[in-house]
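Figure 2 data, in text form.
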Amino acid sequence: MAEYTYLVLRLPRGTSRDAARQLMTEHAEYGGWELHRLRLYPDGSRRIQLRRKVIRPVLTL
């Protein structure tokens, strides 16, 4: 089973859709993150969960 590390971003209600998309694109492109979950609240704020796989090196002798 794969292990993941998570990053949670909270964006205020005034953040545009394009700004949120740009922020997630930068995290994905430069940090290797992928979208796990996005929640849009009734007040307009967003909670974004990004994840990336934890790669553990295997020791060989």
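Caption note: The longest strand covers residues 4-11.
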